[in-house]
Every structure is written in structure tokens, then in C-alpha cells.
Sequence to fold (742 residues):
Amino acid sequence: MKKILFTLILIFSLILIANPQVQPAQPPAGPPPGIQNQKPAAPDVFITTGTKSVDLIFRVNGRDGRLYQAYFGKKLANTESLKQSRDAGHPAYATFGTDNLFEPAIRAVHNDGNPSLELKYVSQSFETGTGGSSAVLNKILLKDPEYPFEVTLFIKTFPDEDVIEQWAEIKHTEKKPVTIYNYASSMLHFDAEQYWLTQFHGDWAEEMKMAESQLTAGIKILDTKLGTRAHMYQTPVFMLSLNGKSDEASGEVLAGTLGWSGNFRFLFEIDEKGSLRVISGINPFASEYSLEPGKIFKTPSMIFTYSAAGKGQASRNLHRWAQKYGVLDGTGSRLTLLNNWEATGFNFDEKKLTAILDETKLLGVDLFLLDDGWFANKYPRNNDRAGLGDWQENKAKLPNGLGYLVKEADNKGVKFGIWIEPEMVNPKSELYENHPDWILKLPNRPEHYYRNQLVLDLTNPKVQEFVFNTVDGMLTKNPGIAFIKWDCNRMMTNTYSPYLKDKQSHVYIDYVNNLYNILDRLRQKYPKLPIMLCSGGGGRVDYGALKYFTEFWASDNTDALERIYIQWGYSYFFPAVSVCNHVTSWGKQSLKFRTDVAMMGKMGFDIQVNEMTENELKFCQNAVTSYKRLNDVILHGDLYRIVSPYEENRAVMMYVNEAKSKAVLFGYILNARYGENFNRIRLQGLDPAKTYKIQEINVLTEGRRFGPSESGRSYTGDYLMNVGLNIGSATPLSSVVYEITE
Ligand code: DGJ
Fold:
């Protein structure tokens, strides 16, 4: 026994010398509740990870060898008191089958049928500078003492952005496969007086509705079971306020999102002592995974930030992180565009499209995006009931092929982009006729459609090849294609993979991982090509996908009033550079209102330019010019949500560049009741010592619809942030945009 004790102390001391992040507690903490009778085995070991304002500290309890979360929250001035504490903390990655009575992070049944898992700390290491960033990647290895089964926890901390990414790798070398039933990406614990959960939910055309509620004892789950996408009804994001509700500028908040484009689950469980555990990861529902010996099961990343200064700061942290690491080319610029979906639907031909290319130029945007309906011959894609899967140009509509349009676009000085939906198939298609075994559908039940289509079985390598070749073939044949809109218009129902045979419970996970494999291959060949992620509206956005996509379609609902709420919701987690907003004819608001709303992200148009009046065209052209001047501030600046549309008949938000020399403020009156008084608002994020000039942009050429303009005035940042501006109007659905320049 003494020998073992000595060896353990020696090992810990060696780790200490090799790694300054691991610090022993002096003196060792007392036993945690429940294990009082065990003898002391080794000093506790502390593993400190964190960012510039946050600490996430783990303790290896010397008495039981398990890993605990000792602390997560605002950075501590020093960790000495924590080391004195008798409380070990909460299990960092709770297992099931031994003494855990609450929801586990992991559950496995060994190949001998034993349903228990024990994980003891083995070692830890860390790397800095991964991928050229200032991130620190901590790895903590845990092993079952009785079985060759191990879990490595990865904690990647981004110091400057105050963001943490966490995931796990699960592996074993047992003789036969081991079934894993739960496999969380992260498990976080909180001890607060109150927990307030903000969730973002909705449906097609009503994405990202916010709802806040207080958590009570027991379990609350946010999840989806959609297969091909993460969100549609629930979104894979949440905000959790501790010790009471938080607002934009104050309160303790955890903002979390899972980087996974399939079924997800966030589980919040408050135990009998009022402690909260938050378990995040792939939804384990109907997804037990048979893990072969030697294979690694890697969970997706849980991405989270903690802010002690409210939700606004949490969003800005995520935006900064996303621009640098979360979104493909997130620090780059974006192409403005004219799309033809709303304007023509499926009803177009070469002549009509050539005319739209002229309108693209006239409008002043960079690119024309040809949407759905350009392909399939035996079953032409003239509506959404046929043709999906047959990716050859429709000869009647495009007799000279895509190549002609790409060339015409080039001749007219604009770029050309194209819509595809390569994971799907209509039953009325040659693809369906030729490859019925490439489709996810139950063999003995009627087919179940959503938008008249079915999902291809991406677990099948032949299908993976087909999808890759569809995209690659199109780009190889038409190297001038400068943009892709990648759509995905249904979820999985009646799901059965002919390829997976007796491993049907793998389908949800293997689908997403193989989609990522295809995207990996495409990105190796086309690293920077802008691709918009789209899914029957905005139901597919998440940071698992955004690594491959430059932007996403936020919603099919482009009514500008609705859009304010939708974009407001997305803004909590996704930066403006990734959110595509188009000016369309959906809403009844003025063209100005619709344009102003579309400007708060990546701006595009999907409108009949040839039906615009001269004044309307001029207005849009000016807006495009202003946008090109200001888009860097909007797309990459810091966002301040100043007045919430959920709280007033008004919405105000502003973007400020890093140097605090330029800002753009957007103000909207959603409704104006008789005598309604809109209070003066205080701006945020400016430099108090600087003087700023206010210039109104997107001014209507005829008639004014907003209250007195501040245009032309100069104020100090101090004044703007303490006294503020009047952003009010008696006209419902009116708006104002101010360019604010040092
Ligand atoms: C759904 C998308 O959200 C729309 O923008 C459009 O591309 C259609 N699909 C085309 O079928």
C-alpha cells in the first residue's frame, strides 16, 4: 500500500514538473460527501483551464481518483481558497452504473454485458497555438480500472474571445464491440440561487422565437430528432442566466451551442440540493452506438461562453470567436446578390435569366444566384414534385447549359451562383428509378414525403461519391461558378438505411458524419468558394456546418417585420457575417424598411427589379453603395442590442468597429400607438472621448417617414452613451439608419 502511495505521489510530482497548469492542493481537501470512509490515497490535483475572464477548474480527488468540476465562472483572483475547500465539486463527466443517481454524461454496456462504467483520472496534457490561434487545448484522459475503456476530455479555450469548446473521444480495446448509449460533449455544473433558461424555438418561417423560463427541480430537455438538420422546432442554442434573469448589459450568463448538424440534446437537471447540471451533445435518442474495438467515437464540440456582464457580452464573445474560428472565412467579405427564387419561382428560361443578369448589374450587386428549377429532363423540375436528384441542365429552359449563363454573367460584369440540394431525391426522378437502394425509407411501409421528396442514404459510400461528384462535377465543368446555395428541404421520417442493415441506430450519427466527410473533401478542393447553408428556411444552422459554409439562409420568411424578430434571435449566437438577409416582396412594409432590415447582415435582393419605379431603383442602388461602404462594420463589428422588439414597439441595434471609429445604428418602429412615447436611447460601444458625426443613410428620395433626423449633427461618445438620441417616430413600420463616424 505504501509503495502504491509513494508511486502515485511520484507520478503526480512528475506531471507537476512537466506541466505548470496542474497544481496540487495544500493541504489535501477533505473527502467529498459519500466517500468519507475511504482512506486518503494521494493529494488532490487541480487542472486549471480558462480564458481571460473565465476559469474552468477541475479537481482530481486523491481519495477516489475521479475527476470533478471544482469551479466554473468568473476568473478567480487566486485559487488558494478553492484548494482548501472540502467540497470536491461535481463529476466532470458522470458515468452510469456505479453510484451516480442522476443523468450521466456517458453510459456504456461492456461486451460482457456489464452495464457499469467507472472513469478514473489518468493524465492530462495541453497544447498551445493549435491552428495558429492563441487557443489552449487541454486533454484529460480518464480510464475504467476494470475494462480497457477510456474517455479523453478535450477542453479548448480561446483566451481573447472568452470562449470554450469542449468535446470527448471515447475508445476501448475490449474483445467485441461495446454499445454506448450516452456520449455527451460536455457536462457543466452550477450552484446558483436561480436558473433562467432562454430557449430559441419555432418552425418554418418563424425561426428563433425567444422564450425565457425559470428552471425547477427535475429535468428540462431541449432537443430535436430531425436527422438531417439540427434545428427547425428547437435550435441548438441556449442562454442560461444564473441567480436571476440577466439582461443585455448585466447578469451572469452562460451561452451555449452545439456544433452538430443533426439531432441534439441539451439536458438541464436540478438535483435535490439545487445544483444544476447541463449535459450537451448529440441526442442519444434511438441512437445507441456499437463501438468497434480500437475505433474512436468523437463527439461534436459544445461551444460556450460565460459572461458576467449580460447577454450582449456573451453574444459579442461568440461573434468574435465565430468570425475567427467558427464560420468559414468569417473575417472575409461577402458577395451582395440578386436571387431569382421569389421573383420567378420555377418559371424561367435562358432569356428571362439573361435579363435578370442585366438587372443584377443595374442594381449594383456582385452576383446573380440562380435558384431551384434549372435541372432534370425526363422529369423536368418545373415544380417541387419532380426532378430532384437529376442534376443535368434542363434543355428546354437552358438549351446552352449553365456554361452559357456563367459566360453571360462574366460579360455583364457580375458573378454567377447556383442552387443545389444534393442530399435529396424526388420519387419522380431518374435517380430514384435507377437507385432505389440509395434512399432512406422503410422497406415495408408506404413512403412518407415532406415537400414531395426523400433523403438519400449518406451512410452509403456510393451515395457519398454521388453527392461529391454532383457538386464537384458542376464546378469542374463550370469553373466560373462563384457561389453555391446548398439546400436541404426535409428531415428524416420513416427512416431505414438499406446500407446500415442491422445497425439502424447509427443512422442519425453516420448521416451527419458522412455529410461532413463529403464537405471536407469539397473544401479541400474548393477551400474558399462561398456556400450558403440553407434548409427550407433557416433550419440547419449550427457551428458544425458553419466550418464549411460562409453563411446561412436565416428564414424563408422575408417579411421585414417578422424578420426583425428572427434576425434578433439569431444575433445571440451567430455573427452578422453569416446571416443572409434578402429584400423581397413578402412584407407590406416600405421598400426602405425592408432594405434597412436586410442590411443588418449579408445583404441580398430577391425581387423583381424590372417592376421597380425609377425612385425605388435609385433608392436600392444607393443602399447597395452605402452597404458596400459600411459592410465591414456590420459584418465584423461588435453588436449592441439596444432596444428589444420583445419589450417595446421598437427595435434598435448598432454595430461598432473595433477601433470605435465607425458605427451603424438601425432603428425600427414596429407599431406606434396613439400618443406612444419612445424614450431617448443611449448608444453603446463608442469611445466617450471621441466626437462622432451622425449621417442618415438610406434616406427616401420622396417624403419622410421617420421622426426628426439627427443627420448632420456631431456629438461626443460620452453624450451619445449617457444622454442618447431620439429614435422615435409616430409612423408604424418606419425606420432609420445612421452612419456614425468619428
Ligand atoms: C427553400 C429555400 O429556403 C428557398 O430559398 C428556395 O431556395 C427553395 N428552397 C427552392 O426550392
The CA atoms of residues 16 and 78 lie 18 Å apart. Confidence is low (pLDDT under 50) at residues 12-20, 22-36.
